[in-house]
Amino acid sequence: MIAEGIRVLALAREWRAVTDLAVNGGTYVVDSGRYLPTPEGAQRYRSGVYRPRDDWRRVTKTERDLLLGITGKDDLHNTVILLDAPGELLHRAWDMRLDAMTRSRAEHQEGKRHALPFLIACVSEWLVEKVFQPFELCSAEVNFTHPPRVSTTYDSEQGRDRGLHVDNWGHPRRMPQERGAAGIRVGVNLGRESRAFVFVNLGLSECAEALREEPLDNHLATALADRNASALAECFLDRNPGYSVTRVVLRPGQAYIAPVQNIVHDGYTAGRRTLDVNLQLSSNHFVHREEFDARAVQVKRRTRPARTTGTRRYGPLQLLIVQGTPLCNIDCDYCYLPDRTVHRPMSLGTFQQTLNRVAEADLVEREFTVVWHAGEPLVMGREFYESAWELSRECARQGGFTITHSIQTNGLLVDSRWCELFTRLGFRVGLSIDGPAHIHDSNRRSRAGRGTHARVMRAVRLLQEHKVPFSLIAVVSSAMLPYPEEFADFFVANGIPEIGFNIEEREGVNTSSSLEGHEEEYRVFLRTLYRAARERNLRIREFNTAEQHILFASGVRSAQATPFQLLNVDSGGAFSTFSPELLGHRHPQHGEFTIGNVWKDSIRDAMKSDRFRALLAEIDEGVRLCGASCRYFPLCGGGAPSNKWFENDTFASTETLECRLTKQAVIDVVLDGITQDLR
Known about the structure:
Elements: E1 7-10, H1 17-20, E2 21-23, E3 27-30, E4 35-38, E5 41-44, E6 49-52, E7 57-58, H2 61-68, E8 79-84, H3 87-95, H4 105-130, E9 137-145, E10 154-155, E11 160-161, E12 184-189, E13 195-199, H5 204-211, H6 218-225, H7 229-239, E14 246-250, E15 254-258, E16 265-268, E17 276-283, H8 289-301, E18 307-309, E19 312-314, E20 319-322, E21 330-332, H9 348-361, E22 367-372, H10 382-399, E23 402-409, H11 416-425, E24 428-432, H12 437-443, E25 444-446, H13 453-465, E26 470-476, H14 484-493, E27 498-503, H15 519-536, E28 539-540, H16 541-552, E29 566-569, E30 574-577, E31 586-587, E32 591-592, E33 596-597, H17 603-607, H18 610-629, H19 633-636, H20 641-648, H21 657-678
Parallel strand pairs: 1-8, 20-22, 20-29, 22-23, 23-24, 24-26, 26-27, 27-28
Antiparallel strand pairs: 2-7, 2-14, 3-6, 4-5, 8-15, 9-17, 10-11, 12-15, 12-17, 13-14, 13-16, 18-19, 21-25, 29-30, 30-33, 31-32
Helix pairs in contact: 3-4, 5-7, 6-7, 9-10, 14-15, 15-21, 16-21
């Protein structure tokens, strides 16, 4: 239960209301300073504090409208803003290894002493430019919260966590009506896992208004007489234990701006396996109303600028997909790569030239990700990635943007030294595993024909032991269809809270899919998996993405069908755009799908080439045909050109097996679930 009050304005690009916004059943009081059992472990709370219940759930449509709606009341003191901090801030924090602190207070203090001057300078410059006019810093702090603690606010005098509270720096006796102009706080997640900001979505004046209907006992009378905001907040929580607490999730590098002197709130780190690092800056200044309203309207309309060439929308670049080598050290039945037995390593010179071409093409807005993929990237060795990371860091510095790295591996070569590199360089790690051994080993075998599941699970354990955040991707083949619940149970039992899945596709040298002729069984699998995942609190990327599109998308277009949102480069420097799976294949009419080579062609010249224009025209025609004939088009945006080509022999076509299984079937299942939730 929530009422109209404090709003959430989400400016962060990767923030998703479906997965990152939740409410619970209210609060309860901790009666004594004891260790309180939680799902994550024991946490000691100060006597008499309030804690949010653990029964988090997705918001209903009504709750979502109350929390995300835009009204004339929106200003910084009635809004929690979520936005992206400068990428340099996160990477510098990781470079300084703030996320690797032990529990030593002396180490914490020393780390803060070295880190704070840079962090304050970086954030202050960003805040002056983007948010505050002017900005004056009242205080700054880096807070460390070790698992299994859930609350991040510590009372050092009593040696207890405070739980839900109101901040009172500067003017602790401000009355509720004065809190609408009180100070605000900026918090930045500098850790390697998501954290949350939890709050009651009523300002203190609304809390006081609600209490006017209550009997005026000594506690409430004293709180009002003493102008004690904390006591007033406690009175509200005590008399309204069923009022929901709102939770907003912040991924690494995301920040909140919140009126912490006007709302009951706390930091929340349930479920984390690694150290929480949170930079907090406090100020008494706020953004001009006109600028704030303009941003709100921009978010409401979901607008996003893009680079143009002539009148055509190109980019912005999101993913630079780089093939370090086509060689793979295993032999999956469903692999699409034609040269996976050939070791043709990319040189550092080719990677440097690739970065040069990207920088001169003016395709980057603020950041992009280098994805090491197509072949087994770890075959290239750690020294290669050390050097590649340094090259990208210098490119980002000169270009004024941020470059992150992601690596997709089968896991067989992962060891402690790789884990150290991933942590130190901030690589995002994706691991491929198809669930339980009997499913995984039916398709993912070594070149000697032996299963690889045990070795991949060794990689999972190493990543977990070294606290390296990673994601998992499974390929759904016909072997998996009878086991949806066993599939979900496997990941939950192994401490893996989130996965993604692809289907076995008909593309490249994999000229058939085991799912052909089994579409109804696949839909049954999906329905059961959707239910099982929700019951087990297992997040599945495809379901979450479909929910986001159903609830919020308007006129999306497939990134694979949008020129230069993806740039794909093979180990020799040949490059293409659109679907990365097309790299290395030929079109009987257009020739190779590559449109240039970084050693002899600029990206700008490639945009003007006849080959690129012919490919684009045929892909555009396919998107137009999808829009004219398919009811799923507003949630899909035209599908993947590679699947159209490999299945239909032309880009100027519509429905494919991949489309029916990964878009239509998933959307149908998720839409049924949302409909049930809203009844």
